[in-house]
Design brief:
Length: about 150
């Protein structure tokens, strides 16, 4: 059994566990970003439930700006009240829906210390699906794929 899949209550501020979570979140971010650089984002399927996630996200958050994430819109008290029920709808649908996952704040930039925020996996899916379907992530492939091809 993977230690990261065990109940969080079993671990109270265990720094080695926090380090494992950080490594896992970073690895996920790195893989996802490399895929964005290589594939047309509009064609990406992140889960078998992409259509449902996207539809419900835009129904619940029609004016949410996915280009640039404002932390208050995800983690402020008012935002939490709206996000919590959205996230819980996926509890039995999306595996690891509440895992900590890194999200780029500014969709036009790569992951780095200043452009990353920790969100739940379902928030990541909702926002990245919107970015992909609404062509926001096209800039990543155009901007960073060229750099990768040139070896930089």
């Amino acid at each position: 059994m993977d230690i990261l899949s065990r109940p969080a209550e079993e671990f109270e501020n265990d720094q080695s566990l926090e380090a494992m979570w950080a490594i896992k979140a970073y690895e996920h971010a790195e893989v996802y970003f490399n895929i964005l650089c290589s594939v047309d984002p509009k064609l990406l399927r992140l889960t078998p439930h992409d259509d449902l996630i996207y539809r419900l996200f835009r129904e619940e958050f029609p004016k949410f700006d996915v280009n640039f994430i404002k932390e208050d819109e995800l983690k402020g008290e008012e935002a939490k009240e709206k996000w919590r029920p959205f996230c819980e709808r996926f509890k039995d649908i999306i595996e690891d829906y509440s895992f900590g996952t890194l999200l780029r704040i500014d969709a036009s930039k790569e992951y780095d210390e200043n452009n990353s925020i920790l969100v739940t996996r379902i928030q990541f899916y909702a926002i990245e699906l919107a970015r992909n379907r609404e062509r926001v992530n096209d800039i990543i492939r155009n901007k960073f794929n060229v750099r990768k091809e040139k070896g930089g």
